[in-house]
Specification:
It is a single chain. This protein is an alpha/beta fold and about 500 residues long. The protein has two domains: about 250 residues, Rossmann fold; about 190 residues, Nucleotidyltransferase, domain 5 (2-Layer Sandwich). The chain has 15 helices and 19 strands. The strands form three sheets. A ten-stranded mixed β-sheet has the order 3-4-5-2-6-7-1-10-9-8, sandwiched between helices. It has a six-stranded mixed β-sheet with strand order 16-15-12-13-14-17. The radius of gyration is 29 Å and the shape is elongated. About 40% of the residues are buried.
Length: about 500
């Protein structure tokens, strides 16, 4: 009986494969016509409208050969930020699920939230808006929202990275979100495992929803770009569309604004709040290095000038950064003057080669030659409302001073908190909203710093091991807290 059941199951599988292969494939015209009548935009409540660049790119992406198969098995759909790239893919996903019986569709992200936050979210919200209008009653969204089932047996799953758990599927459509950020071994294994089944040859596709990444730090996306754009052939005279026929790969790699809402005013505003590297990557879809100079020397020098006077009892914030005992130790005191930050004092200690820095003098706590003595002196000289410090090497010193009542010491987050503070310092310098007296050591540390970009965030990093940036980091923490506390 078991053998007969196995044979019956095998015959059913063969019949399904043959049926699937016999079913006509969809075209770009099919997807566009259906979506413009059925795909709702969550933010406007209006139906999706396709523009000529999107129509042309879809025509290439869904082109078929003489046997009726898709010419391209992998489509890299890469446009500048705010080009509705995820929305177009969401409309395609919804169309396939609605029109291909028993379609299996996976939307993959770096984690569950990312898998759901782009394409999946747009599909789900479109369906909900349609159902509010009385349409699409048979489509069911799971309680979590991570699974959508269609009356024809199709299913959309929104999944995080799990190479072992998701291997061996028989998918009709796989969508990878923000492949620029896939940089770890698990990401690479996931990409390798999520290949298309031979039973769906020419009838299934992998789509990549992304913009440009970082040179040398996007190991999944960069080879696709190399194969499609660099080694491929441009196949459209009007738009940046490239194909590698041998790899069955199409790269729609747009670097210029093509849509009505991408106005000069919008880009001027974005350029004012993003680093040049982040702007180039997100809004011009250009590859950038993950690290570049934090700020030009001319920007920093333009901020030098006469310091506004400090009023009696005016609040001051002190930033403290230190590495290991054989590294530098920096203390930077700042005040707030309107929307500007004023650098009041800078102190940096650098041990001699082969020696260790003495953080404190146990026989003379007020010794001005030590960091502890300087911190105590600043607490006496100013109305210090906060000492913001990097806890990694400074926990013992700062905790002891706090217990002794020297001041209020706050451990500053070196993760997301630092990324926000470093970006704020960049903005302050760019906009000349920081005032300093030209201290040469602080200038050296600022210009020693590179910025490691990650999306719209950045982190101060050393350009090389011998280039110290501790004063720049101390200034970053102090400036952030001076503005956050809103005290003048």
């Amino acid at each position: 009986m078991a053998r007969n059941e196995a044979r019956a199951l095998a015959r059913a599988l063969v019949e399904r494969v043959l049926t699937d292969r016999a079913a006509p494939l969809y075209t770009a015209a099919d997807v566009i016509a259906w979506a413009e009548q059925n795909f709702w935009l969550y933010d406007t409540g209006q139906l999706l409208t396709f523009y000529e660049p999107q129509r042309r790119a879809l025509q290439h992406a869904l082109a078929r050969d003489g046997a009726g198969h898709f010419i391209y098995h992998t489509v890299v759909w890469s446009w500048p930020k705010k080009s509705a790239k995820s929305t177009v893919i969401a409309a395609l996903v919804d169309y396939v699920a609605e029109h291909v019986p028993r379609a299996q569709i996976k939307l993959l992200g770096n984690d569950q939230r990312q898998a759901d936050s782009r394409v999946g979210f747009y599909v789900r919200e479109s369906i909900r808006l349609a159902q509010k209008r009385g349409g699409r009653p048979g489509v069911k969204i799971s309680i979590s929202g991570y699974h959508i089932d269609y009356p024809n047996g199709s299913r959309i799953d929104m999944l995080p990275i799990d190479p072992a758990g998701e291997a061996g599927g028989n998918d009709d459509l796989i969508v990878f979100s923000e492949l620029w950020g896939w940089r770890h071994a698990a990401h690479q294994r996931m990409w390798e495992e999520m290949t298309l089944s031979p039973t769906k040859y020419g009838r299934a596709q992998r789509w990549v929803d992304t913009y440009a990444g970082f040179v040398g730090d996007s190991p999944v996306l960069e080879p696709l770009y190399q194969a499609g754009v660099v080694e491929g052939k441009r196949v459209d005279d009007d738009y940046e569309i490239y194909a590698n026929a041998n790899a069955r790969l199409l790269c729609v790699w747009v670097t210029q604004p093509l849509l009505p809402w991408q106005t000069p005013q919008y880009y001027a505003e974005q350029a004012s709040v993003l680093t040049p590297s982040a702007f180039a990557r997100m809004h011009r879809n250009q590859w950038v290095t993950s690290e570049s100079a934090f700020v030009p020397a001319s920007w920093w020098d333009a901020c030098a000038g006469e310091l506004p006077p400090l009023r009696p009892a005016q609040p001051v914030v002190v930033g403290i950064d230190a590495g290991i005992a054989s590294d530098a130790f920096a203390v930077v005191a700042v005040s707030r003057h309107g929307g500007r930050v004023v650098v009041r004092e800078v102190h940096v200690w650098q041990p001699r080669p082969g020696e260790r820095l003495l953080f404190a003098n146990p026989h003379a706590p007020n010794d001005p030659a030590t960091p502890e003595g300087t911190l105590r002196a600043l607490a006496r000289r100013y109305n210090v409302v906060q000492f913001a410090y990097d806890e990694y090497q400074l926990h013992d010193l700062c905790s002891r001073l706090a217990r002794e009542g020297v001041g209020w010491f706050r451990a500053f987050s070196q993760g997301a908190g630092r990324a926000v503070a470093d970006k704020l310092l960049y903005d302050l310098i760019r906009d000349r909203r920081i005032v300093h007296s030209g201290d040469p050591t602080l200038r050296e540390h600022i210009l020693n710093a590179d910025a490691r970009a990650d999306g719209d965030k950045l982190r101060l990093v050393k350009r090389a091991g011998e280039h110290k940036i501790d004063a720049a980091v101390a200034l970053s923490m102090a400036a952030h807290e001076a503005l956050r506390l809103n005290l003048e």
